Amino acid sequence: MRPVALVAIGALAACQMMTAAAETPADREAEILKTATSLANAGTWDNVGLQFVEDLTTEIGPRLAGSPDEKRARDWAVAELTEMGFANVHVEDFTVPYWKRTHETARVVGASAQPLIITALGGSAPTPEGGLEADIVRFELLADMLAADDVDVAGKIVFIDEYMTRTQTGAGYGLAVAKRAACPKAAAAKGAVACLIRSVGTDHFRRPHTGGIDRRGPDGVAKPMGPIPAAALSAPDGDQLARLLERGPVTVNLDIGVETADAAPSGNVIAEVEGGANKDEIVLLGCHLDSWDLGTGAIDDGAGCGIVVGAAKLIDQLPGKPDRTIRVVLYGSEEIGLFGGDAYARQHADELDKHVLASESDHGASYIWQFQTKFGEGALDYANKIQGVLARYGVAAGDNLAGGGPDIGVLARSGVPVVTPAQDGWDYFDYHHTPDDTFDKIEPDAFRQNVSVYAAFAYIAAESGWDFRKPADPEE
User: Fold this and answer.
1) Is the same domain home to 362 and 443?
2) What average pLDDT values come out for the chain (476 residues) when binned by 10 residues?
3) Which residues form the Peptidase M28 domain (predicted)?
């Protein structure tokens, strides 16, 4: 295993701005903001985080939830983080329903016989041996299929041809992903034998995007697979199928094989920069260690893990300890249903009131352009002070409606203050959940800007003593 490169001595020197406690609170605050700026400056040429992603995606590769590969990634991460000098490095175990594709093909049969490029959706049921054949019924929108008469769907393969809108914020994903999650269960309820969707992505390459379906049973508990076979078509193949349907009925042979298990091991990897006087108070920086199996999980979410590890290591190299503990959480099994986030919230339920701030990097590695918060009304001035440091790195002020990220959403709903350093997602969904999610898609300067931003706000949160839950001052 190639060791992770440590920050050069020059970067550490650039960060050594910390002094003894200043004489006044104002002086102390100014010193903290000054050190945060020095950390951010060091982050712009730091290589620890980028090396972490390169090594993870090269030495481990894809890391499907519940698989032996995810286990190898956990073991690798524990060894790397321990070697890097983090404190309290360990794994917190849990189990997940396991699903793995074994083969996947689709083919138009009849006079216009031809292959279609697909990928099975996570949780897809298998087809019978040799595949199944059925006529296609196309719906432009998920809502159209939900409103259709059962007789128009029964015995057919449903095709949801809904497009995803490209946006900087990635907001189009929330709308488009609904068809992926809901189609199999809703189509099965109407008697369909399978479900095809236009890939949830913004590219127009012949590479389909995988992703999970809703596989919860009537009791709300996730099962290894959903009720019927389900797959995503590449965008050009979605177009091709739509054109064929304009010319008349289309029959497709769909052949999907899977392996499943009711329970497989997973876990969250924890590492800390131990705090000082208030070490029981926690600033949490999260990412998810698992990935889908088509690419190597570089932008989703190896990059996020490299960003938070690189930022935490910068702070760890300062002389002395931060006042509060910075906890890095590499969540497991995010892709199949936020299992790691839910497990962490359960396992740490008695200390969530000690989590003073949380953030998660899980939207690629492009430049952060906005800083959103979810603070108490009385803490909004703290947001302004943090953003004042980040502004010099191209980060604009956001609103106070941050969600924090997928795995820490449960923390936000429990009242933990969160921030969302919003990355530019313009091309993120060109590669998301595809074979092209690989290390070469990470632009180093943009990645390092992320490290700078995370190091700056995490240090301020850990050192300032600010109460981000602070309510508005009562009116006199």
Assistant:
1) yes
2) 37 42 78 97 96 98 98 98 98 98 98 98 97 98 98 98 95 94 97 98 97 93 95 98 98 98 98 98 98 98 98 96 98 98 98 98 98 98 97 97 97 98 97 98 98 98 97 78
3) 268-457
> How far, in Å, CA of 326 to CA of 312, rounded?
7
Judge whether 259 lies within some domain.
no
Distance from CA of residue 218 to its chain's centroid? Answer: 27
pLDDT digits (tens, 9 = 90+) for 201-225: 999 999 999 999 999 988 989 999 9
The structure's pTM equals: 0.94
The CATH number covering residue 207 comes to 3.50.30.30
Question: 269 and 234 in one domain?
Answer: no
Instruction: Count up the domains in the chain and report the number.
Output: 2
Angle at 157 between CA 155 and CA 161, to 5 degrees: 145
Task: Report CA torsion sign: 398, 402, 406, 411.
Answer: positive
Q: Domain check: are 144 and 19 in the same one?
A: no
pLDDT tens digits for range 27-40: 999 999 999 999 99
Cβ distance 438 to 421 under 8 Å? no
In a domain, 362, yes or no: yes
